[in-house]
Design goal:
The protein is α/β, with parallel strands linked by helices and 447 residues long. The chain is 32% helix and 26% strand. The structure holds flavin-adenine dinucleotide. Flavin-adenine dinucleotide (FAD) binds next to strand 2, helix 2, helix 3 and helix 8.
Amino acid sequence: MYDVIVIGAGPGGYEAAAHAGQMGKKVALVEEKRVGGTCLNVGCIPAKAWLRSSRLYRECGEAKLFGVEISSYRLDMPAVVERKNRIVSTLVRGVEGLLKRSDVEVLSSHARISGRNQVEVGGKVLETANILVATGSRPAKPPIPGIGSEGVLDSGTVFELDEVPSRVAIIGGGYIGLEFATFFSEVGAEVVVLEMLPQVASGCDGEISERLLRVLERAGITFKLSCRVVGVDAGTVRFVSGDGQPGSYTADCVLNATGRVPVVEGLGLEEVGVDFSAKGIRVDLQGKTNVPGIWACGDVTGKHMLAHVATRAGIVAVNAMFGGHDWVRYEAIPAVIYTHPEVASAGRTEEDLKAAGIPYKKASVPMGVAGRFLIENEKGTGFVKVLTGAKHGEILGVHAMGDSASEFIVAAVALIEAGVPVARAGQVVFPHPTVGEALREAILQVK
Ligand code: FAD
C-alpha cells in the first residue's frame, strides 16, 4: 500500500513525489515517457536553450556596437540541437537523481485510475491512500482543416528540426508562438505570426503586449492580427483578415502554437467520479478534487499553465494530503515571455484593476534609467511599470519589458507576496549596477 501514487513526472509530479519521499512517505511516480515532463523535454528548457543560441547568433552581428569585430560566424543548427539535447539530458539525470535520493519508486508505464484507491500500472493494480494526478497538457488542435496534418509542427515536434526553415508561419501569438517567432527570426528565417485576437500575448498587461508587438515588428517579424486561420494545406496557411479579406501565406515550416489543453483522457477520471472538463480537473487551492484521496496539480488543472505553478501546487497538495496547512496563493504568480527583449510580470494588470473597479496609481520608467541596462544592451529597449493601491500603497502589479526582467521580477513577487507597501519598498537596497534598479526607480516614482 502506497501513501501516494503520483501520475506524471513533469515539474508538478516529480517535485511532489520527491517532497513526499523526503517526508518519509511510500511513493510511486508513474511516467509513460521520460521524467521531466513537457518542461524539461519539449518545453521551457529546450525553448530557452534554442533562444540562447539564436540570441548569440544575432549578437555576433551586433558585436561591432560593443567594439568587437567578428569577421566570420555562422549558425550550426545540428550543434544548436545537440547543445539543447545535452542540457535536457543533464537536467533529466538530475531529476532521476533527486527521485532516487528521495526514495521514490519510478514506474515507467501508462497509469490509469481504476478505483478510489487504486491505480493500474502495466496490467497491475496498485493500492494507495492518495492519488496525485499531474498528467500535464498537450498542444491544442483547434478545428482548422489541415492543422493536424503531418507537415504541421507543434511545440512537441518542432524540436526535431535540424535545419533552419527559410519561411515560417506560426499560428498563434501567445507566449509559445512569440518565443519561437523570436528564435526563427534571429536565426534568419522569414517569420509570419497569425493571431486571431487583435493583440499578441493576450492576458499580459495591455501596454506590455502593445510595446512588445512593436519591438518584435521592428526586429523583422510580421504579424497578422485579428486574423482567422481557416485551413492549412501543404505549407500554405489560408486565413481571413480582420477586414474580411481572404489571404494566404506559404511557408516551409508551419507551427501550430494555438495553446495547450489538459491531459484528462484515458485516466479513468469518469469512472471514479472526478469532476473535470476539457478545461481541466477542478481542484481547490490545495489541489483537492471532489473525490476524497484524489488530488491534482499543474497543467492538468488548467490553471496558470506554468512550470513553477505546477511545482508549487504539487508541493501544496502533498503537504495538505499529509495534514499540513498550505495552499497556493495566486496573487503574485510571475509569468515571463522569453522573447528578445523578454517580458516579465507579477500581480494584477491595469486591465484587471479597471475591470474590478479598484482605484490604483501607476509609475513607469524606461529600463535605461538603470546604468547596467545601457551597458548590457546597445539596441535594447524596455520599461518597468508598477501599479499600487491608490489608498494604502500596496503593490498590486509589476510589469516589465527588457532583458533581465525575468531575473528581477522575483523581487516584485516577494514585495507583493509580503504585502510590502510602496513607501517601504522604496527603502529596500538594490545592488548597483543591476538592471533591477529600474524596478526601484519605478517604485520611487509612485506618487
Ligand atoms: P507536464 O510537464 O506536461 O508533465 C506531465 C507528464 O505526465 C508528462 O511527462 C506525461 O508523459 C505524463 N503523463 C501523462 N499522462 C500519463 C499517464 N496516464 N500515465 C503516465 N504518465 C502520464 N512554463 C514555464 O513556467 N516557463 C517557461 O518558460 C515555459 N516555456 C514553455 C515552452 C514551451 C514550448 C512549452 C510547450 C511549455 C512551456 N512552459 C513553460 C509550460 C510548462 O512546460 C508546463 O506548464 C509544465 O511542464 C507543466 O508541468 P506539469 O507537471 O503539470 O505537466
